[in-house]
Amino acid sequence: MTDHALRLLRQSRSAAELAAFPFEFDLDRADHGEEVRLASGGPLTPVAGDGAGGTYFVCADGSVLYADSEGSAGIIGSSADEALEIVIGLPGWHDYLDLSPADGREKILARVAETEDEIREYEDNNDGNDGNDGNDGNDGNIDAERAELRGTLGLPERSPVELIGMLHTALLRTEPDFLLLNAEEGGAYERLDPHPRPPLWEPVLARGRADLATLRAGGGPAAWDAVARDPLRRRLALRAAQFDRADGDLDLLRHLVRYEAQSSMTDELRLGAVLVGLHGLAEDLALLHEVRDTDFDTACGLSELPGPGDTGADLRQWALETDASMFGTEPADEPVFSWTELARDQGMTELARVALIRLLDEIELGQYLLRAPGGASEPLDTSPLRALSREFQELGDLFQALRAQRLSADLQDTAWARVSARLTQARLERELGLLPRATATLTTLRATLTDPRDTSLRLWHGVNLGRSIAEEHYALTRALADADLPEEARALLASSDAILGELSGNAAAGVRELAEETAERVRDLG
Fold first, then answer.
1. Average pLDDT of the segment spanning 392-415
2. How many other C-beta atoms are found inside a 10 Å radius of the C-beta of residue 345?
3. How far is CA 96 from CA 72, 202, 427, in A?
4. Distances (CA, A) of 363 to 55, 309, 401, 407
5. What's the CA gap between 57 and 5, in Å, rounded?
6. CB 47: neighbour CB atoms within 10 A?
7. pLDDT tens, 250-269?
8. Is 137 left (phi over 0), alpha (psi -120 to 50) or beta?
9. Which helix (DSSP H) or strand (DSSP E) does residue 58 occupy?
10. What phi and psi, each to the nearest 5 degrees, are found at residue 306?
């Protein structure tokens, strides 16, 4: 982490004034205007701003994140010193966000020269009107001002081409570790730059592709065991084989399938069976039937396998049909949740989080546009919302899980579905410590229970849903008591007892002990 130049800037008022104009790095403008945070939860310290409402933040590793006032953000330097090198060496850096070293020296220098000529012209036109006495010798001379500030801060002189390379490298580091969010609403800032990134599946599948290459290199079953015995590596290798199919893979696929059967029924086991079946050999039916008989779940999952007396052609036909309906050869066609789950399992938490937040933002924006006057005529698919909530919970990101859950609850079209969704919403709010919100959510839930217009809830009193409703009411009552909110706790306890009183004997049986413990806790409040 290098912040030597930033410390010098803070110690020199004249240098700070020069950094503020014309280089738009103003230490007195460090207020961003809205609360923001990193999706990763890492610390974020505002250090400067510019005249357009943008803000420079220093992250935990020293990287500098710039956020503009229009909802875009990106890393512009690996340290404060590097960021200062860029904003001083490229005073028009905002205009170069689309440039990369691949554009070549000639194009880069031409773009920089054009922008800096405009800056010089602006300074010339405003010389004498800026309140200076005209004796500093630098009025209207961006080159002299740059040289002076570089010298004061001890920054090296670099060519625009080198600085563009540094800026480009920094921008590409923005995601996944430095995704900026609106702290209140949870939506992500857009990328500051237009540069393409690798698709999600590429880093997620990298290890599997490497292992598949190793498996293909030879060695036989003994050498394959290092991958086959590791559940995660085995899954990744099977996924890699899905998108890179080779005629010579049959033996290693058989080996992987035998081991994958030990994990019971999984998507990768079905995939492995399909990849084996595509070779169309009748002798593989015995292996696949043996795998199918591993346990009850696997027997159900592979129940449509051809029978023992069928032919290799029958096996291949089953594999082709299953492949077409469930798998395929294009990684881009896989559901995003396939990749986020594999990313999470490999410890690529932030990579998964970014993909999920971007998907949630897209759905939320689609719903906003749909409701707006003259908005979209085709509703966006909102079916991923429940899965999004679950995936965020798996990541431990309850804030984003709640965001997805609230939107999901708002869009349910039956009373049963609304109550189920609100129940999960109330739990997430409680776990986040948002007790008044959770209380309000349960109030809405109870109103839905008594709505006579929807008959989908007519049996809620005697099923698991009823028990879960009562349990969440008592859990929230306990949380209110623990938060020393006696009036709220007593009020919700009365509602909890009313819910319990409506449950059938079987549904209520498992809740009575919880009810008694909660009532005792509320009585302890005095």
1. 95
2. 15
3. 15, 27, 47
4. 28, 49, 14, 9
5. 15
6. 18
7. 999 999 999 999 999 999 99
8. left
9. strand 55-59
10. -55, 155
The number of beta carbons lying within 10 Å of the beta carbon of residue 498 is 12
Main-chain dihedrals φ then ψ at residue 187, nearest 5 degrees = -70, 150
**Is omega for the bond preceding 22 within 30 degrees of 0, making it cis?**
yes
User: Taking Cα atoms as reference points, which of 332, 6, 397, 380 lies closest to residue 179?
Assistant: 397
What token pair was written down for 375?
Answer: 């908005």
Span 139-196, pLDDT tens digits: 558 999 999 999 999 999 999 999 999 999 999 999 999 999 999 999 999 999 999 9
Which residues are CB-contacts of 262 (< 8 A; sequence separation ≥ 6)?
294
| Residue matched to tokens 């779940």 | 297
And the tokens for 119? 């800056």
Q: Report the b/e string of 322-331 with b at 16+ CB within 10 A.
A: bbeeebeeeb
Residue type, 255: H
Residue 151: both structure tokens together: 């010298």
Q: Are strands 190-191 and 44-49 parallel, antiparallel or unpaired?
A: unpaired
What are the tokens at 175?
């995601």
Q: Nearest to residue 18, comparing CAs of 137, 157, 163?
A: 137
pLDDT-derived band at 380 (thresholds 50, 70, 90) equals low
